[in-house]
Amino acid sequence: MINKGRQRNAYAGEYIQDDWKTSSKLTLNVGLRYELYTQPIDQNNLGSLFDLTTGNFAIPGNTPYTRAMVQGDHNDWGPRFGFSYQSPLPKLVVRGGYGVFYAMRDQNQSATQFSGSTPNIPTIQVPSISAATTVAPPYTMSTPIHIVPATASTAGFTPAAPYGVVIKTQGLQRALMPRLMQYNLDLEYQQSPNRLFAISYSGSRGDHFATYYIDQNQEPFSDVLNGTNTQANRPYPNMGANVEGVYSRSSQHYNALNVKVQQQASHGLQFLANYSWQKNIETMGNGPDAYTESSSSVAMYTYNLADEKGVTPLNIAQIASGSVLYQLPFGAGRPLLSTAHGLLDYAVGGWVVNGIISLRTGFPSSVETNAVPADFQSFNFASCVPGVPTRLPNPGVDGYFNPAAFTVPAAAPTITGAQVPTLGNCGH
Predict the structure, then answer these.
(1) pLDDT of 351-360, one tens digit each?
(2) Cα(315)–Cα(324) distance, rounded to whole angstroms?
């Protein structure tokens, strides 16, 4: 980096809210919030974003771009509503709510920290190489590194000598702040002064979330079969690496059921038990993985993003937990040794035994393969063997997945008769 970047953005939020007790049994809570997140800029207008529509770099503040280069999002209104209702059953209370919430869009390398992009970094020009066609290595230990002048244009680069840096950029149009609509309904029943039963439903729908990195310089698989999968036929032929865009097009859908039983102190015993079932489904990913790039943060195949729908990487389907606390019946005022005092009461009184247990299912996982189609993909999933269970009969720490359930994707013939791997079908 030639000069140190300094990202700047601002936030403002205003709200109005009121509680309204309509009767002795019903209380309403109503509010409205407006939030403004400004798009990130660099203090000194360093770096750039790659404009996917023009194929050149957008420079902060240079016509026709603003300092942020992306469109602003100034329409983030969040209504809120909640209620509490004492039902005709004297010990049953019903609560519920709905709200719309916003957050700053995903912060990630280059897309928001764009000061680390050309023309604020040296640009290296490298020849295009391929495992299938390159015979002589284009570089040796004595080959000088060819650094070209930092520029906002890709002019001067060719398919034979392309721009050799992975591009990570934000889609300049509709770079929206993520929106989450949350809702819940809770039922609480107090069976006795010391015992409480509760069951609740929680859900949310999110949109305008950041997608995975989507490689816009990938070729369709049909090009592999037709033998036209060359650098010159890539969507950006002068760009020799991935051109990865992030868009505000991902969505999420979450549903959860929670059951709770709570026993307050009675005869020295109290306990709490919880069980949760939940599922969180996403489309097109949940944003790049912080400031790194891995197969879990890049869409596999740009031309069929519907395959990116699945449970989120942090989804835990079931959680069961319990805690018990028991005050031992010894010491002054307790059933046993109730007359103890002094050192005896100090030694035997006030002891408590407690325990906690927590059980949960694991995180989702994917099985990948190094058999990758030659369409400039970064990775490939394995294929599932029909009728074979993916888990071992007795899964445990020594083995969970059944290796026999996965296989290298089937091969398909190209126009020349060569066999190439296809896309795997064991996705997220």
Answers:
(1) 899 999 999 9
(2) 27
Per DSSP, the residues of 286-313 read S---TT---GGGB-S-TT-GGGG-EE-T
Q: List phi, psi (to 5°) of 231.
A: -60, -35
Indicate the helix (H) or strand (E) that contains 261.
strand 250-266
Q: Are 375 and 224 in contact (CB under 8 A)?
A: yes
CA Rg value for the chain: 30
Q: Are 183 and 98 in contact (CB under 8 A)?
A: yes
Which pLDDT score, from 0 to 100, does residue 70 have? 93
The model's pLDDT over 213-251, given as tens digits with 9 standing for 90+, comes to 999 999 999 999 999 999 999 999 998 889 999 999 999
Is residue 355 within 8 A of residue 324, CB to CB? The reply is yes
- List Cα–Cα distances, 354 to 195, 265, 286, 325, 346, in angstroms: 18, 13, 39, 4, 20
Other C-beta atoms closer than 10 Å to the C-beta of 399 total: 11
